[in-house]
Design brief:
It comes from Pedobacter petrophilus. By secondary structure, the chain is α+β, with helices and mostly antiparallel strands. It has 4 helices and 10 strands; from the N terminus they run βββαββββαβαββα.
Length: 177
Amino acid sequence: MKEQQTTEFDFVIDKLTNSIENAISGEVFDTSIMKLTASDTKIIKKSEWAFDWQNELKNEAKQVSKLTTVNNLAIIQGLISFTDTGDHIFMNLIESAKFNKGKNKLYKGVAGNLIAFCCKTAFELNYDGVVSFVAKTQLVSHYQETLGAKIYGGNRMFIDTKEAFILATRYFKDFKL
């Protein structure tokens, strides 16, 4: 059996918002998270993304979702790939759009929104909100501080029920257990 390669997360949680927030004006935009489709991949230019999202979509074990604003479903703000392991959600990849990275980013809160979606999904699947991922070693403490993530071996981390609930209810106002 071919061993699946795991990508270490190296994103920085710029800000936990209640949605996504314009980095200049502070204006907040409602978001929508939907499954990425094959037709969506036509607008994903490889030069604008670090990961091969078309390849990610081909793997049937993975679920790939896109984050957009409610008012503009055509512009993808961020992407996430995750796997239902049967007892928790494992985040494979997460990426903000190129224009949402660095000091001149357009929106803050993209990564937090996508992670909250995984937490919400983990609750909906009766996994008590538990989400895991592999972090780059130098970012372990950052994820502990910003997400409340815990270490369960080396640089493998998880978001437990309490912290997952906080994230899910912050980003999804209608979310209830």
